[in-house]
Amino acid sequence: MKHICKDDVVNIPEGVTVEVKARQVRVTGPRGTLSRDLRHIQMDIQRPSKSQLRVIVWKGGRKHIACIRTVCSHIDNLIKGVTVGFEYKLRYVYAHFPISVNINTADHSVEIRNFLGERVARKVLLDESVSVSQSPAQKDELVLSGNDVDLVSQCAASIQQSTRVRNKDIRKFLDGIYVSEKTTVVKEN
Questions:
Q1: pTM of the model
Q2: Which end of the chain has a smaller Cβ tally under 10 Å, C or N?
């Protein structure tokens, strides 16, 4: 059954400007500018007021209407990224061989050594917009931070996947680097 008109509203906070042109969304805030291309989804994005954005689907089926919430979530993540940012914390877990992680700022990568006692070093390239550092408060912890949630989470997933245990019983060999916390860069009181 097709619905004639379905819509949802995204609220825009103070200090954030949102520009929409041909389903290309550009959000500017105190932490920078992010943009997203949504041209692959057939829908209207209108601006009924200065503090609201309206996403509309005309004559859409069930799966097409489900895209409304997806687009609203993408725009909310852009707004959250330019206001408070995203921060992922990763912990090193090891039973016997201590994992050593070196951060290369020259080629923007992370080098993982001594994983399960292996001699080979694993190198994970990170995106330029994601900053990586060792945690000053916690031993054996990496902190990834940036404005774009897709890039920060992809870098965290790449680091976690590089330390997957292969050809061994994963119930026994629990070594690796795992995402332990997902927070924002600007902490709320």
A1: 0.91
A2: C
